[in-house]
Amino acid sequence: MDHSRTIIHIDLDCFYAQVEMNKNPSLRTVPLGIQQKNIVVTSNYTAREFGIKKCMLIPEAKKLCPSLVLVNGEDLHDYRQTSYKVTNLLQKYTPLVERLGLDENYLDVTTLINEKLNQKSDLKLVGNVFGDTSDKCECGCTERLIIATTVAQEIRDVIKSELNLTSCAGIAHNKLLAKIAGARHKPNQQTVVFPNSALELILSLNAPNDIPGIGRALFEQLKCIGVETIEELQNVDLKRLETVLGQDKAKLVHELSLGIDKSGVKPTGKPQSIGLEDSCRSISVETEVKIKLEQLLNRLLLLVEEDGRVPKTIKLTVRKFNKDNKMSHRETRQCNVNPSIFSSSQPNKEAKIMTTIMHLFNRIIDVKKPYHITLLGLSFTKFQEPPKNTLASFLRKDLEVQSVLSIENQNGVEDAESPVPSTSKLAPTEGESPTPSPKKLKLTNLVSKKRCFEDYYEDCESPSKLKVADLCLDSVSCPPDADKEVFKELPKEVQKELWEDYKRRRASEMNFCSSQVKKTKPNTLLNYFIRNN
DNA sequence: TGGGGTCCT
DNA sequence: AGGACCC
């Protein structure tokens, strides 16, 4: 077996509740529930002592705990923001950070651990251990996992000190085991599991669908062939499993049941979609539909503006009333939109977008017949170009021009555009814990977001006129797409970053163009900035 | 049972 | 466009 990787799973404790308690510290001392419609989606640990459970109905929760304080958590904006702050912190340890929902992250710390291994730091196991450790694997994984317990503790300490959030961590040689182990001791604790305890850990779960990756549908299929417990799944005849699941799925599921998980930690880049939903008792007239969708659209436009990218398609989701318990049944329709519609200079773009949304709506609902809608959702997908969250993006004058200059982020790998150079990444570390990087320069407040478009072509040289040689010089000059007057006033360091950013973008363009023509990868600057390629 | 997301078919 | 999975 291969135990060469070291994975840490970080899970924020009752995440929404923690965010609300940080916003309003007086909530810390009371039983707190986060409410979405008629449901308590999560609660703080004070409330849990009353027996409040995830996804409990409000009346039931109130009966268990009449003093329960409820905060509405239907707008995820603040949770999403905090969530990304956590992920950004984690990315200082390794670029291999994968998000799962808003409150979980996987880290592949293999490289970092191997570096620490060479430094001969003393082996001190921190936190809980799952299972018995008398039978020790000799492949080296034991030492690696022990070092990782210290790293996990450091990471949790930083999340606490920087963001005032407590979390749990699971440490193992794969994602599956790390996640399951982390849930053993909650809250604000961590657990390591060694390979020899993998089977025991999996068997400690109650049912096959407690294994991440085995959901309701798979569980039902398993039942059909008489597999109801994890033990039965572990011992099932593979051929029989294949008859219902097919070869690939059968192998995967069987391996999961044995604690084997070969899946890698996939760096999560920018979201593939940004959407909003609103459930409701009943909507059956068109004006109400319009009002709801307008609300959703206005909120969504703000989110997309924050994101910085421009979407190319829009998707409408409708859930019709269904007396059967098929609550999950939704219908969607999508269409492409001209990205120019999102331009800030576009006069009443809301109305224009609403027109296409209502067109989608009419593809799902025949408004001449009675209807009964219980959910409306709107989402934007297929974004143009990766946004460049750098100082440069701020000074760039025109979104449309920007889109011409940029390329799609083809593999979703982090694009080396982090405003703070991730120092600890792959470079050898100095042995101490990763120090928080210097505070980001908050240009947001320094530079007005107002951009003027008119003089772009007069003011700037065409990028195509820039010679490749310019890109290789050490000297720093003003990128053609930045405001020269503003640029002059900036500190030298900032000027340098803007110029570096511009060079990177130029390099990307060059590679983009040539790779369209010939399949071979030219040895451009880009190769230094794009990994896994 | 909410309000999100991902990837595969 | 839907369905599986995840939180």
TrEMBL record:
* Residue segments, region Disordered: 410-440
Tell me which Gene3D superfamilies the record gives.
3.30.70.270, 3.40.1170.60, 5' to 3' exonuclease, C-terminal subdomain (1.10.150.20), 6.10.250.1630, DNA polymerase, Y-family, little finger domain (3.30.1490.100)
Query: Could you tell me which residue ranges the UmuC domain spans?
Result: 7-215
> GO MF annotations for this entry?
damaged DNA binding; DNA-directed DNA polymerase activity
UniProt entry tagged with the keyword Nuclease? no
One BP annotation, GO:
DNA repair
Name it.
DNA polymerase iota-like Protein
Q: Name the UniProt key words of this record, in alphabetical order.
A: DNA synthesis
The similarity comment for this entry is:
Belongs to the DNA polymerase type-Y family.
- In this record, what's one Pfam family? IMS
